[in-house]
Amino acid sequence: MSKTVLVSGGAGFIGSHVTVELAQAGYDVVIADDFSNCDETNYKGVCAILGREMPLVTMDFCDAVAVERLFGQWHIDAVIHFAAFKAVGESVQEPLKYYRNNLLSFLNVLEAAKRQGGCNVLFSSSATVYGEPEELPVTERSPRQPATSPYGNTKQMCEDFLRDAVGAYPGIRGVALRYFNPIGAHPSALIGELPRGVPNNLVPFITQTAIGKRECLSVFGNDYPTPDGTCQRDYIDIVDLARAHVCAVARMLDGRMKAGYEVFNVGTGRPVSVLELVTAFEKVNGVKLNWKYAPRRAGDVTAIWADPSLANKELGWRAERSVEETLAAAWAWEKRLAGK
Ligand code: UFG
User: Fold this and answer.
1) In the chain, what percentage of residues exceed pLDDT 90?
2) With a 6 A CB cut-off, is 126 part of the ligand 1 pocket?
């Protein structure tokens, strides 16, 4: 009998790609989203890729009654929790909004999991928990640093909620996946990143500049202690990232976990500088990007990339796509959005 996976935030950038990979791997997927930070574009894209209407529940995970009702309506074998606010800067301006939404929604999921006598829970965490790392690449044993934003703090706190719930309530198993920098789009160009307003993140800013929606990309800082002076990150293809979720869900459902709570880095292990990313984008897509150096952006770490060997070994997963393939997919998506 096939297993049912609930994907909260399933209409968002990561959630939509994960839904596709789960459904293609044979899972029954229930998408839940409140559409507070996305429209129906990705939901419709998911249905188009899969060739069928996917079950969709429009709901707010901060509504405990609605979460309880959802768990009563479906037999949920595993839940992947994406539903959260994610703008680092906004979280500094409006910390209570972030704490309320990101913490309460996850508490409601855990309480529902407890009430039904157990569940497999996958939490979408972030490399932000490592702060400015002392050693590179970072492993799962690298220390978490005090969070520098309320957003980052919610990621750390939710990891702890999950760890403690697993420790206290039999039947709850948990995995936290720490994402590095997810970029790109589905090869079909039917789903992708849809930032509202001016993008905060690098790749959407690059594609919007290339298409003419933004005048010029600012490269924040050229005086970092890195080979070319710009920050280094571990850019992970969104479909590769999505596949890691399928591996983690299968591990939980098949009883292959080595502990009730496990943490995995999801990255490529390959550092790429801002300048290298810009140059690769121009080269693979044959476009000239208008960009300039600008002062450092507050809060940016100099360099971070993953040691993904634990995920490679335990999940049987590894990142496969090159950064060039990923940047080509991001550009195809932007062009499709623009009708070009
Ligand atoms: N950058 C630019 N210009 C831009 C946007 C970004 O030069 O217009 C640079 C940044 O300075 C950074 C790199 O591109 O060096 C990547 O920046 P992103 O904003 O794309 O990604 P971050 O590494 O800052 O963000 C990631 C995750 C967040 C997480 C954060 C923690 O996307 O979810 O790390 O610091 F919270």
Assistant:
1) 99
2) yes
Neighbours of 257 (CB within 10 A): 18
Contact by Cβ (8 Å): 122, 174: yes
pLDDT at 331: 98
- Domain boundaries in the chain? 4-183+235-266, 202-233+269-337
Asked if residues 332 and 258 have their Cβ atoms less than 8 Å apart, the reply is: no
**Is 201 a pocket residue for ligand 1 (Cβ < 6 Å)?**
yes
* Chain centre to alpha carbon of residue 339: 26
DSSP string for residues in 259-273: SSEEEEEES-S--EE
The predicted-structure confidence for 191-249, as pLDDT tens digits, reads as follows 999 998 999 999 999 999 999 999 999 999 999 999 999 999 999 999 999 999 999 99
**What is the Å distance from ligand 1's center to 260 Cα?**
32
- The pLDDT confidence band at residue 117, using thresholds 50, 70 and 90, is very high
Nearest alpha carbon, ligand 1 atom 35: 128
Strand partners, 263: 176
CATH T-level topology, domain 4-183+235-266: Rossmann fold (3.40.50)
224 C-beta closer than 6 A to ligand 1: no
Q: So which residues are the catalytic ones? A: 151
Q: What angle do CA 277, 280, 284 make, to 5 degrees?
A: 145
Residue 86 Cβ < 6 Å to ligand 1:
yes
The alpha carbon of 100 and the centre of ligand 1 are apart by a number of angstroms equal to 24
